[in-house]
């Protein structure tokens, strides 16, 4: 605003008029509130304490108008003061658009009633111009206040989000985790899948933008945290294989070069620590599989994880592969063990077992049905061999 212009206009307002404005400030604020209630249905629905907060802002604005007329160089401080006097959560229940609607309603009241308080006719024109200038300053102050509140809220949300992701990785108690996630807008019952990999840079805002933009394209809610050089992303939504894989592939683009591991989908955020634990274990072990796909499922890294000493991977291999073969009868376990030991040559396996090659084929098909692993596939053969080894170790320790 041009302070000199305001000063020249302010000099044209007499002391008598200024005193009249001071005396009328309370009535003007009340009239403004009445106009807001009449013109804005949403304002009428606000609780009494929130309407009182708006009244406080309006009263401060009116009284500051008189002070501004006397000293226009204080324009910025006085217009911002009205919003500093308001409760800190004002911007949470009154949006910027609604605040500007309130300012318009107050302007109309000021334009109609303030000029009537002028002692002389020429003061009325000056007051009308000054009202428009002052309310413009009020509008700018409101925008500045909301921008500052949004920036502070964004910083707080980022810290809270980092706490939630850290809690998932650590396996914090369910109550504290869910309450913090709910504050960020996460649906408590939403399924959750964890991805881990290397952060693409040391610029957190850039990382957040990259992850969120890709999550938006995938239509998935996300929580993310940067832990040193590691990026942890939790995404929600349906867990059917195709949809989850597509979402994970899109989000992988936000990671730096190198492996990205996807944990198993958890039924809710309170169970997501299991997904995080498997993904972290996979990230430590994936170096043993140089040609692993990107992203790679933690479940597909069970052999490497088991060799790295992950007891959960050992348990999954034994329970998912060895025990079903044991329960199905000794012939299947013996057949797949012999087949793998003889390098996957079916005829040699049949001779070793004194059975027809077709019998071996049938048994290997049954192995694939029970375990989801095809012995003739090189990768699945590795999984089966490691699983059988883990099964022998577990049996030696009396675990089954």
What overall geometry do the principal axes of the alpha carbons give? Answer: rod-shaped
H/E element sequence: HHHHHHHHHEHEEHEHEHHHHHH
Number of domains: 3
Number of E-state strands: 5
- What is the CATH topology descriptor of the largest domain? Globin-like
Please describe what this structure looks like.
The chain is of the alpha+beta class and 400 residues long. It folds into three domains: 3-152, Globin-like (Orthogonal Bundle), CATH 1.10.490; 177-303, Alpha-Beta Plaits; 311-396, Arc Repressor Mutant, subunit A (Orthogonal Bundle). The chain has helices at residues 3-11, 15-39, 41-44, 48-70, 75-84, 90-93, 96-113, 121-170, 174-183, 204-218, 241-252, 272-285, 302-307, 311-328, 330-341, 346-353, 357-371, 378-396; strands at residues 192-198, 222-227, 230-236, 261-262, 296-297. The chain has a five-stranded mixed β-sheet with strand order 2-3-1-4-5, with helices on both faces. Helix 4 packs across helix 8 and helix 5 (75-84) crosses helix 8. It is rod-shaped, with a radius of gyration of 35 Å. The N and C termini lie far apart (82 Å). This is DNA-binding PucR family transcriptional regulator. InterPro entries: CdaR-like_regulators, CdaR_GGDEF, PucR_C-HTH_dom, PucR_C-HTH_sf.
């Amino acid at each position: 605003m041009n302070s000199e212009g305001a000063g020249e206009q302010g000099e044209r307002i007499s002391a008598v008029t200024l005193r009249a404005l001071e005396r009328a400030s309370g009535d003007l604020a009340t009239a403004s509130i009445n106009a807001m209630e009449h013109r804005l249905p949403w304002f009428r629905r606000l609780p009494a304490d929130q309407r009182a907060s708006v009244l406080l802002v309006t009263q401060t604005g009116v009284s500051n108008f008189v002070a501004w007329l006397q000293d226009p160089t204080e324009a910025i401080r006085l217009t911002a003061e009205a919003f500093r006097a308001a409760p800190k959560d004002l911007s949470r229940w009154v949006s910027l658009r609604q605040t500007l609607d309130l300012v318009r309603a107050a302007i109309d009241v000021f334009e109609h009633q303030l000029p009537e308080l002028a002692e002389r006719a020429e003061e009325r024109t000056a007051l009308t111009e000054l009202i428009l200038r002052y309310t413009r300053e009020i509008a700018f102050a409101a925008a500045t206040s909301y921008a500052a509140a949004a920036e502070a809220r964004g910083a707080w949300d980022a810290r809270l989000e980092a706490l939630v992701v850290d809690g998932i990785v650590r396996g914090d108690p369910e109550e504290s985790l869910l309450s913090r996630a709910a504050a960020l807008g996460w649906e408590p019952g939403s399924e959750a899948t964890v991805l881990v990999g290397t952060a693409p840079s040391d610029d957190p805002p850039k990382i957040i933008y990259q992850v969120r933009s890709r999550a938006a394209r995938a239509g998935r809610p996300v929580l993310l945290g940067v832990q040193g050089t590691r990026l942890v992303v939790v995404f929600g939504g349906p867990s059917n294989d195709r949809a989850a894989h597509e979402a994970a592939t899109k989000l992988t683009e936000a990671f730096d070069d190198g492996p990205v591991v996807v944990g198993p989908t958890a039924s809710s955020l309170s169970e997501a620590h299991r997904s995080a634990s498997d993904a972290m274990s996979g990230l430590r072990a994936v170096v043993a599989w140089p040609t692993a796909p990107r992203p790679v499922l933690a479940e597909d890294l069970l052999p490497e994880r088991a060799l790295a000493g992950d007891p959960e991977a050992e348990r999954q291999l034994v329970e998912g592969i060895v025990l079903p073969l044991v329960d199905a009868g000794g012939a299947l376990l013996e057949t797949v063990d012999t087949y793998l030991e003889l390098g996957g040559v079916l005829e040699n396996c049949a001779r070793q077992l004194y059975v027809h090659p077709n019998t071996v084929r049938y048994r290997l098909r049954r192995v694939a049905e029970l375990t989801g692993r095809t012995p003739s596939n090189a990768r699945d053969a590795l999984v089966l061999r490691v699983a059988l080894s883990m099964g022998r170790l577990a049996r030696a320790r009396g675990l089954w």
